[in-house]
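Instructor's aside before we start: the two examples that follow are unrelated to each other. I chose them only because their records fit on one page, so don't look for a connection. First example below.
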Amino acid sequence: MLSPCSGTGTKGAALAEVIHDSQRGAEQMANRWAFQMGIRRVEVRAEWRRYGSAKALTIRNHQMFGLQPHGVIAFPGDAHSLTVVQLAQAFRVPVLDAQALLAKQERRAAKATLCEGAPGASAIHNPWRA
Protein backbone atom coordinates (compact mmCIF):
# COMPACT_ATOMS: atom_id res chain seq x y z
CA MET A 1 0.00 0.00 0.00
CA LEU A 2 1.20 3.45 -0.79
CA SER A 3 0.83 6.79 0.97
CA PRO A 4 1.86 10.14 -0.55
CA CYS A 5 3.64 12.87 1.36
CA SER A 6 1.24 14.42 3.81
CA GLY A 7 0.68 18.14 3.90
CA THR A 8 1.49 18.81 0.25
CA GLY A 9 -2.12 18.90 -0.88
CA THR A 10 -1.14 18.32 -4.50
CA LYS A 11 -1.84 15.51 -6.87
CA GLY A 12 1.25 13.63 -7.89
CA ALA A 13 2.96 14.21 -4.56
CA ALA A 14 6.08 12.21 -3.84
CA LEU A 15 5.71 8.80 -2.28
CA ALA A 16 6.09 9.12 1.48
CA GLU A 17 5.75 5.56 2.72
CA VAL A 18 5.17 1.95 1.80
CA ILE A 19 2.83 0.00 4.09
CA HIS A 20 3.54 -3.73 4.08
CA ASP A 21 3.28 -6.95 6.06
CA SER A 22 6.83 -8.34 5.73
CA GLN A 23 5.58 -11.63 4.28
CA ARG A 24 7.77 -13.36 1.71
CA GLY A 25 7.41 -12.39 -1.93
CA ALA A 26 5.99 -9.07 -3.06
CA GLU A 27 5.80 -7.72 0.49
CA GLN A 28 9.54 -8.23 1.05
CA MET A 29 10.36 -6.82 -2.38
CA ALA A 30 8.32 -3.69 -1.63
CA ASN A 31 10.10 -3.32 1.71
CA ARG A 32 13.52 -3.75 0.11
CA TRP A 33 12.69 -1.31 -2.71
CA ALA A 34 11.45 1.34 -0.28
CA PHE A 35 14.61 0.93 1.81
CA GLN A 36 16.85 1.34 -1.25
CA MET A 37 14.87 4.41 -2.37
CA GLY A 38 15.01 6.00 1.09
CA ILE A 39 11.24 5.80 1.51
CA ARG A 40 9.72 5.30 4.94
CA ARG A 41 8.43 1.78 5.55
CA VAL A 42 5.51 0.92 7.81
CA GLU A 43 5.24 -2.73 8.77
CA VAL A 44 1.89 -4.08 9.94
CA ARG A 45 2.25 -7.69 11.04
CA ALA A 46 -0.51 -10.22 11.47
CA GLU A 47 -0.63 -11.53 15.03
CA TRP A 48 -0.96 -15.23 14.17
CA ARG A 49 -0.47 -16.65 17.66
CA ARG A 50 -2.88 -14.23 19.27
CA TYR A 51 -5.80 -14.46 16.83
CA GLY A 52 -5.30 -17.53 14.63
CA SER A 53 -4.85 -17.43 10.87
CA ALA A 54 -8.14 -16.14 9.45
CA LYS A 55 -8.83 -13.54 12.13
CA ALA A 56 -5.20 -12.36 12.20
CA LEU A 57 -5.32 -11.56 8.49
CA THR A 58 -8.64 -9.74 8.78
CA ILE A 59 -7.38 -7.62 11.68
CA ARG A 60 -4.06 -6.92 9.93
CA ASN A 61 -5.81 -5.87 6.70
CA HIS A 62 -8.11 -3.48 8.55
CA GLN A 63 -5.12 -2.03 10.43
CA MET A 64 -3.36 -1.42 7.12
CA PHE A 65 -6.39 0.35 5.65
CA GLY A 66 -6.75 2.28 8.90
CA LEU A 67 -3.49 4.01 7.91
CA GLN A 68 -5.42 5.47 4.95
CA PRO A 69 -3.27 4.34 2.03
CA HIS A 70 -3.65 6.22 -1.21
CA GLY A 71 -3.09 3.17 -3.38
CA VAL A 72 -2.57 -0.59 -3.46
CA ILE A 73 -0.28 -2.44 -5.84
CA ALA A 74 -1.74 -5.90 -6.45
CA PHE A 75 0.53 -8.72 -7.56
CA PRO A 76 -0.80 -12.08 -8.71
CA GLY A 77 -1.06 -14.34 -5.74
CA ASP A 78 -3.36 -16.30 -3.53
CA ALA A 79 -6.75 -15.66 -1.95
CA HIS A 80 -5.17 -13.26 0.55
CA SER A 81 -4.12 -10.95 -2.30
CA LEU A 82 -7.64 -11.03 -3.68
CA THR A 83 -9.02 -10.17 -0.24
CA VAL A 84 -6.79 -7.09 -0.02
CA VAL A 85 -7.93 -5.96 -3.49
CA GLN A 86 -11.58 -6.41 -2.52
CA LEU A 87 -11.00 -4.49 0.70
CA ALA A 88 -9.27 -1.70 -1.22
CA GLN A 89 -12.27 -1.45 -3.51
CA ALA A 90 -14.59 -1.32 -0.50
CA PHE A 91 -12.50 1.52 0.99
CA ARG A 92 -12.38 3.21 -2.45
CA VAL A 93 -8.59 2.96 -2.57
CA PRO A 94 -7.22 2.78 -6.14
CA VAL A 95 -5.68 -0.55 -7.09
CA LEU A 96 -2.81 -0.90 -9.55
CA ASP A 97 -2.78 -4.38 -11.07
CA ALA A 98 0.94 -5.12 -11.45
CA GLN A 99 0.36 -8.05 -13.81
CA ALA A 100 -1.83 -5.97 -16.14
CA LEU A 101 0.71 -3.13 -16.05
CA LEU A 102 3.53 -5.50 -16.99
CA ALA A 103 1.48 -6.94 -19.85
CA LYS A 104 0.74 -3.42 -21.10
CA GLN A 105 4.44 -2.52 -21.02
CA GLU A 106 5.31 -5.71 -22.89
CA ARG A 107 2.72 -4.90 -25.57
CA ARG A 108 4.17 -1.39 -25.93
CA ALA A 109 7.69 -2.78 -26.24
CA ALA A 110 6.59 -5.30 -28.86
CA LYS A 111 4.76 -2.57 -30.79
CA ALA A 112 7.85 -0.33 -30.68
CA THR A 113 10.04 -3.04 -32.22
CA LEU A 114 7.53 -3.49 -35.04
CA CYS A 115 7.64 0.19 -35.97
CA GLU A 116 9.68 1.10 -39.03
CA GLY A 117 11.68 3.65 -37.06
CA ALA A 118 12.79 1.18 -34.43
CA PRO A 119 16.47 0.21 -34.72
CA GLY A 120 16.81 -3.07 -36.58
CA ALA A 121 13.07 -3.50 -36.98
CA SER A 122 13.08 -3.83 -40.75
CA ALA A 123 15.90 -6.39 -40.71
CA ILE A 124 14.31 -8.50 -38.00
CA HIS A 125 10.59 -8.14 -38.59
CA ASN A 126 10.38 -7.56 -42.34
CA PRO A 127 12.68 -9.95 -44.22
CA TRP A 128 11.27 -8.83 -47.63
CA ARG A 129 12.47 -5.29 -47.22
CA ALA A 130 15.96 -4.42 -48.42
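Example two begins here.
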Amino acid sequence: MIARLHHVVALVVIGLPLLPMLALGAELSLKYDVYYGPLRVVAIESRSQQADGRFKMSTHMQTVGMIGSLFPWTLQAEARGLMADGDVRSESRVVDSVYRGKRQHFEVRYSTDGAVDVGFDPAPDTRERELVPVELRRDTLDPDAALIHMLGVLVTGGTCSGTLRIFDGRLRYDLQLAEAGKAQVATADGSIYSGPTRLCDAVVEPIAGFPLAERVKGDERARLRYYLAPVLGGATLIPARVDLSGPRGTLKAYLVDAQRGG
Protein backbone atom coordinates (compact mmCIF):
# COMPACT_ATOMS: atom_id res chain seq x y z
CA MET A 1 0.00 0.00 0.00
CA ILE A 2 2.72 2.49 0.93
CA ALA A 3 4.58 1.82 -2.29
CA ARG A 4 1.55 2.94 -4.28
CA LEU A 5 0.15 5.56 -1.93
CA HIS A 6 3.32 7.49 -1.09
CA HIS A 7 2.24 10.25 -3.50
CA VAL A 8 -1.15 10.46 -1.79
CA VAL A 9 0.48 10.68 1.65
CA ALA A 10 2.47 13.64 0.37
CA LEU A 11 -0.48 15.51 -1.12
CA VAL A 12 -2.54 15.05 2.03
CA VAL A 13 -0.11 15.68 4.85
CA ILE A 14 2.26 18.25 3.40
CA GLY A 15 -0.26 21.00 3.93
CA LEU A 16 -1.08 20.23 7.55
CA PRO A 17 1.54 22.35 9.31
CA LEU A 18 0.40 25.54 7.60
CA LEU A 19 -3.28 25.19 8.49
CA PRO A 20 -3.13 26.93 11.87
CA MET A 21 -0.51 29.50 10.96
CA LEU A 22 -3.09 32.00 9.77
CA ALA A 23 -4.11 32.71 13.34
CA LEU A 24 -1.20 31.52 15.49
CA GLY A 25 1.44 34.06 14.58
CA ALA A 26 4.89 34.17 13.10
CA GLU A 27 6.27 30.66 13.58
CA LEU A 28 4.92 27.20 14.27
CA SER A 29 6.53 23.76 14.45
CA LEU A 30 4.46 20.57 14.19
CA LYS A 31 5.18 16.86 14.08
CA TYR A 32 2.90 14.07 12.86
CA ASP A 33 3.22 10.30 12.91
CA VAL A 34 1.31 8.37 10.25
CA TYR A 35 0.03 4.85 10.96
CA TYR A 36 -1.27 2.06 8.75
CA GLY A 37 -3.05 -0.22 11.19
CA PRO A 38 -0.60 -0.84 14.06
CA LEU A 39 2.44 0.14 11.98
CA ARG A 40 4.04 3.59 12.20
CA VAL A 41 4.92 4.20 8.56
CA VAL A 42 5.69 7.90 8.02
CA ALA A 43 7.17 10.65 10.22
CA ILE A 44 6.66 14.33 9.40
CA GLU A 45 8.44 17.39 10.80
CA SER A 46 7.78 20.90 9.62
CA ARG A 47 8.23 24.56 10.43
CA SER A 48 6.07 27.37 9.11
CA GLN A 49 6.77 31.10 9.25
CA GLN A 50 4.67 34.16 8.53
CA ALA A 51 5.87 37.76 8.17
CA ASP A 52 4.82 40.85 6.21
CA GLY A 53 1.93 39.10 4.49
CA ARG A 54 4.04 36.19 3.30
CA PHE A 55 4.29 32.59 4.41
CA LYS A 56 7.03 30.00 4.15
CA MET A 57 6.85 26.36 5.18
CA SER A 58 9.57 23.71 5.19
CA THR A 59 8.63 20.05 5.60
CA HIS A 60 10.59 16.84 5.97
CA MET A 61 8.84 13.48 5.55
CA GLN A 62 10.18 9.94 5.53
CA THR A 63 9.02 6.37 5.84
CA VAL A 64 10.09 4.68 9.09
CA GLY A 65 10.36 1.27 10.74
CA MET A 66 9.79 -1.87 8.69
CA ILE A 67 8.05 0.11 5.96
CA GLY A 68 11.04 2.45 5.82
CA SER A 69 13.31 -0.52 5.21
CA LEU A 70 11.10 -2.01 2.49
CA PHE A 71 10.04 1.25 0.85
CA PRO A 72 12.65 3.91 1.71
CA TRP A 73 11.26 7.35 0.85
CA THR A 74 12.21 10.86 1.96
CA LEU A 75 10.75 14.17 0.89
CA GLN A 76 11.92 17.71 1.59
CA ALA A 77 9.66 20.54 0.47
CA GLU A 78 9.50 24.32 0.77
CA ALA A 79 6.43 26.37 -0.13
CA ARG A 80 6.10 30.17 -0.27
CA GLY A 81 3.12 32.41 -0.85
CA LEU A 82 1.12 35.51 0.02
CA MET A 83 -1.59 36.09 2.63
CA ALA A 84 -3.57 39.34 2.61
CA ASP A 85 -7.15 40.38 3.45
CA GLY A 86 -8.37 36.79 3.60
CA ASP A 87 -6.83 35.94 0.24
CA VAL A 88 -4.14 33.27 -0.09
CA ARG A 89 -1.95 32.90 -3.18
CA SER A 90 0.83 30.49 -4.03
CA GLU A 91 4.18 31.81 -5.28
CA SER A 92 6.48 28.78 -5.39
CA ARG A 93 7.00 25.22 -4.31
CA VAL A 94 10.29 23.29 -4.39
CA VAL A 95 10.42 19.55 -3.71
CA ASP A 96 13.28 17.07 -3.41
CA SER A 97 12.36 13.42 -2.92
CA VAL A 98 14.13 10.09 -3.01
CA TYR A 99 12.17 6.85 -3.37
CA ARG A 100 14.15 3.60 -3.36
CA GLY A 101 17.26 5.48 -4.43
CA LYS A 102 15.54 7.34 -7.27
CA ARG A 103 15.85 11.11 -6.83
CA GLN A 104 13.29 13.61 -8.11
CA HIS A 105 13.54 17.40 -7.94
CA PHE A 106 10.94 19.84 -9.18
CA GLU A 107 10.12 23.52 -8.83
CA VAL A 108 6.72 25.12 -9.36
CA ARG A 109 6.13 28.84 -10.01
CA TYR A 110 2.63 30.30 -9.68
CA SER A 111 2.19 33.58 -11.61
CA THR A 112 -0.21 36.38 -10.71
CA ASP A 113 -2.01 35.92 -14.05
CA GLY A 114 -2.93 32.32 -13.14
CA ALA A 115 -0.26 30.59 -15.20
CA VAL A 116 1.76 27.85 -13.50
CA ASP A 117 5.19 26.64 -14.66
CA VAL A 118 7.03 23.55 -13.45
CA GLY A 119 10.54 22.25 -14.06
CA PHE A 120 11.85 18.73 -13.33
CA ASP A 121 15.30 17.23 -12.75
CA PRO A 122 15.48 14.58 -14.05
CA ALA A 123 12.64 14.69 -16.56
CA PRO A 124 9.78 12.43 -15.39
CA ASP A 125 9.10 9.09 -17.05
CA THR A 126 5.86 9.64 -18.97
CA ARG A 127 5.46 5.88 -19.37
CA GLU A 128 4.58 5.75 -15.67
CA ARG A 129 2.49 8.89 -15.26
CA GLU A 130 1.03 11.55 -17.51
CA LEU A 131 2.25 15.13 -17.26
CA VAL A 132 -0.35 17.69 -16.25
CA PRO A 133 -1.27 19.82 -19.30
CA VAL A 134 -0.60 23.55 -19.06
CA GLU A 135 -4.30 24.44 -19.25
CA LEU A 136 -5.13 22.23 -16.26
CA ARG A 137 -2.50 23.94 -14.09
CA ARG A 138 -4.04 27.40 -14.45
CA ASP A 139 -5.62 29.14 -11.47
CA THR A 140 -4.53 26.50 -8.97
CA LEU A 141 -2.99 26.60 -5.51
CA ASP A 142 -0.27 24.50 -3.97
CA PRO A 143 -1.50 22.16 -1.20
CA ASP A 144 -0.34 24.46 1.58
CA ALA A 145 -2.04 27.60 0.30
CA ALA A 146 -5.22 25.67 -0.41
CA LEU A 147 -5.46 24.39 3.14
CA ILE A 148 -4.61 27.80 4.62
CA HIS A 149 -7.56 29.10 2.63
CA MET A 150 -9.77 26.39 4.10
CA LEU A 151 -8.79 27.26 7.66
CA GLY A 152 -9.21 30.96 7.00
CA VAL A 153 -12.82 30.34 6.02
CA LEU A 154 -13.43 28.30 9.17
CA VAL A 155 -11.77 30.86 11.46
CA THR A 156 -14.03 33.61 10.13
CA GLY A 157 -17.20 31.62 10.80
CA GLY A 158 -17.58 29.90 7.46
CA THR A 159 -18.21 26.24 6.71
CA CYS A 160 -16.05 23.46 5.37
CA SER A 161 -17.49 23.41 1.86
CA GLY A 162 -16.67 24.07 -1.77
CA THR A 163 -13.88 22.85 -4.04
CA LEU A 164 -10.15 23.61 -3.86
CA ARG A 165 -8.19 23.38 -7.14
CA ILE A 166 -4.70 22.07 -6.37
CA PHE A 167 -1.52 21.47 -8.39
CA ASP A 168 1.55 20.37 -6.43
CA GLY A 169 4.01 20.06 -9.32
CA ARG A 170 3.12 16.49 -10.29
CA LEU A 171 -0.51 15.94 -9.31
CA ARG A 172 -3.54 17.97 -10.34
CA TYR A 173 -6.59 17.24 -8.19
CA ASP A 174 -9.57 18.87 -6.55
CA LEU A 175 -10.46 18.63 -2.88
CA GLN A 176 -14.25 18.59 -2.47
CA LEU A 177 -14.98 19.76 1.08
CA ALA A 178 -17.97 19.07 3.33
CA GLU A 179 -18.84 19.64 7.00
CA ALA A 180 -19.08 16.37 8.94
CA GLY A 181 -20.19 17.40 12.42
CA LYS A 182 -18.22 16.88 15.62
CA ALA A 183 -16.47 13.99 17.35
CA GLN A 184 -14.53 13.17 20.50
CA VAL A 185 -11.01 11.80 20.04
CA ALA A 186 -8.75 10.07 22.53
CA THR A 187 -4.98 10.09 22.68
CA ALA A 188 -3.52 7.24 20.66
CA ASP A 189 -0.14 6.32 19.18
CA GLY A 190 1.61 9.28 20.81
CA SER A 191 -1.06 11.84 19.97
CA ILE A 192 -0.93 14.89 22.25
CA TYR A 193 -4.64 15.76 22.10
CA SER A 194 -7.86 14.27 23.40
CA GLY A 195 -11.22 15.98 23.44
CA PRO A 196 -13.82 17.47 21.09
CA THR A 197 -13.03 18.07 17.42
CA ARG A 198 -14.73 19.64 14.42
CA LEU A 199 -14.83 17.34 11.41
CA CYS A 200 -14.12 18.44 7.87
CA ASP A 201 -14.33 15.81 5.11
CA ALA A 202 -12.65 16.02 1.72
CA VAL A 203 -12.83 13.82 -1.36
CA VAL A 204 -9.72 13.76 -3.55
CA GLU A 205 -10.90 14.09 -7.14
CA PRO A 206 -7.99 13.09 -9.46
CA ILE A 207 -7.67 15.37 -12.49
CA ALA A 208 -4.25 14.61 -14.03
CA GLY A 209 -0.71 13.48 -13.25
CA PHE A 210 -1.53 10.33 -11.30
CA PRO A 211 0.30 7.06 -12.11
CA LEU A 212 -1.26 5.43 -15.13
CA ALA A 213 -1.53 2.11 -13.28
CA GLU A 214 -3.58 3.70 -10.51
CA ARG A 215 -6.54 5.32 -12.24
CA VAL A 216 -9.42 5.14 -9.80
CA LYS A 217 -13.14 4.75 -10.18
CA GLY A 218 -15.48 7.28 -8.64
CA ASP A 219 -16.31 5.06 -5.67
CA GLU A 220 -12.60 4.37 -5.02
CA ARG A 221 -11.43 7.96 -4.63
CA ALA A 222 -9.32 8.76 -1.59
CA ARG A 223 -11.29 10.40 1.20
CA LEU A 224 -9.94 12.57 4.00
CA ARG A 225 -11.33 13.39 7.40
CA TYR A 226 -9.73 16.28 9.30
CA TYR A 227 -10.21 16.32 13.09
CA LEU A 228 -9.74 20.00 13.94
CA ALA A 229 -9.24 21.12 17.53
CA PRO A 230 -7.88 24.04 19.62
CA VAL A 231 -4.75 22.07 20.49
CA LEU A 232 -2.75 25.14 21.56
CA GLY A 233 -5.69 26.89 23.22
CA GLY A 234 -7.99 29.67 22.08
CA ALA A 235 -10.20 29.45 19.03
CA THR A 236 -7.50 28.42 16.57
CA LEU A 237 -8.03 24.99 15.01
CA ILE A 238 -5.18 22.56 14.33
CA PRO A 239 -5.57 19.11 12.75
CA ALA A 240 -5.20 16.81 15.76
CA ARG A 241 -5.70 13.85 13.46
CA VAL A 242 -6.27 13.17 9.76
CA ASP A 243 -7.63 9.94 8.28
CA LEU A 244 -6.98 9.04 4.65
CA SER A 245 -9.21 6.23 3.43
CA GLY A 246 -8.91 4.51 0.07
CA PRO A 247 -9.39 1.14 -1.62
CA ARG A 248 -6.24 -0.23 0.05
CA GLY A 249 -7.12 0.76 3.61
CA THR A 250 -6.80 3.75 5.93
CA LEU A 251 -3.81 5.83 6.94
CA LYS A 252 -4.09 7.86 10.16
CA ALA A 253 -1.91 10.90 10.91
CA TYR A 254 -1.67 11.89 14.58
CA LEU A 255 -0.31 15.18 15.88
CA VAL A 256 2.50 14.24 18.29
CA ASP A 257 4.09 17.66 18.94
CA ALA A 258 3.10 21.31 18.47
CA GLN A 259 5.22 24.33 19.41
CA ARG A 260 4.87 28.07 18.85
CA GLY A 261 8.06 29.89 17.99
CA GLY A 262 11.38 28.14 17.41
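Confidence is low (pLDDT under 50) at residues 1-8, 20-24.
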